[in-house]
Amino acid sequence: MAFRASVLTLYPEMFPGHLGFSLAGKAMERGQWSLDAVQIRDFATDRHRTVDDTPAGGGAGMVLKPDVLARAIDSASENDARPRLLMSPRGRPLTQERVRALAAGEGVIIVCGRFEGVDQRVIEARGLEEVSIGDYVLSGGEPAALILLDAIIRILPGVMGNDLSGLHESFEGGLLEHPHYTRPQEWEGREIPPILTSGNHGAIEKWRHEEAVRLTRERRPDLLESAKIEKNG
């Protein structure tokens, strides 16, 4: 069954964006995944197609209305068990583990917030899982949704040319990725590490693992807490 993504947004023209190119675009053409960009404004009932209103209690900005957004969610998810996600800076940080879990399912429904946010009542009533791609604020959820979908689609079966390539990347196994090199052998006085051209595959794998541990310890020591290695390994 093809992976189905439904994105609820005020800017459907932003999709599929970069996902229409390269491996993801080719996978879409082959029918390995599909994308439906739903215009939230289509579910407004007044003649101005109003989707937002002022915050209860006062304050700056506007808030997406729960009734309009709920109708959009219900339309996209009728008789549908796909996870309902809301891209939000206050959500749980996205991890590779969560990406793998989503990729193993039949698809996702993603709500892209705008303005000051989404009425809390629709988050609770429609069971939206808030997901964050980092500790910063974007102008809307669309770029975050594209990043989430990119992470998912690339690990769907058959999307990458070599399925093994995804097993040796950053965050797979809890470590950052080891350094990469390619020809020429010497460039601006810098040589490829001799071990990588030795032909000794066991030694190469050991070197790559040690380099991954070293880089993780230097740049993301927090990851070592959950990595399946010893800190002094």
TrEMBL record:
* Catalytic activity field: guanosine(37) in tRNA + S-adenosyl-L-methionine = N(1)-methylguanosine(37) in tRNA + S-adenosyl-L-homocysteine + H(+)
One of the entry's Gene Ontology molecular-function terms is: tRNA (guanine(37)-N1)-methyltransferase activity
**Per its UniProt record, what NCBIfam families does this chain match?**
PRK00026.1, trmD
Q: Which HAMAP family match?
A: TrmD
Organism lineage string: Bacteria, Pseudomonadati, Pseudomonadota, Alphaproteobacteria, Hyphomicrobiales
| One GO location term (cellular component) | cytosol
Report the leader peptide range. Answer: none
Organism of provenance: Rhizobium fabae
Q: Under what name is this protein listed?
A: tRNA (guanine-N(1)-)-methyltransferase
Q: Where is the tRNA methyltransferase TRMD/TRM10-type domain?
A: 4-225
Query: Keyword Acetylation, does the record have it?
Result: no
Assembly notes: Homodimer.
Which of this chain's residues are annotated to bind S-adenosyl-L-methionine?
G113, I133, G134, D135, Y136, V137, L138
Question: Which family is this protein grouped under?
Answer: Belongs to the RNA methyltransferase TrmD family.
Q: Localized where?
A: Cytoplasm
Q: Which GO terms describe its biological process?
A: tRNA N1-guanine methylation
Please name the Pfam families in this protein's record: tRNA_m1G_MT (PF01746)
- Keyword vocabulary terms for this entry: Cytoplasm, Methyltransferase, S-adenosyl-L-methionine, Transferase, tRNA processing
What gene makes this protein?
Answer: trmD
Enzyme Commission numbers on file: 2.1.1.228
Task: Describe the function of this protein.
Answer: Specifically methylates guanosine-37 in various tRNAs.
InterPro entries cross-referenced by the UniProt entry: Alpha/beta_knot_MTases, tRNA_m1G_MeTrfase_C_sf, tRNA_m1G_MeTrfase_TrmD, tRNA_m1G_MTases_N, tRNA_MeTrfase_TRMD/TRM10
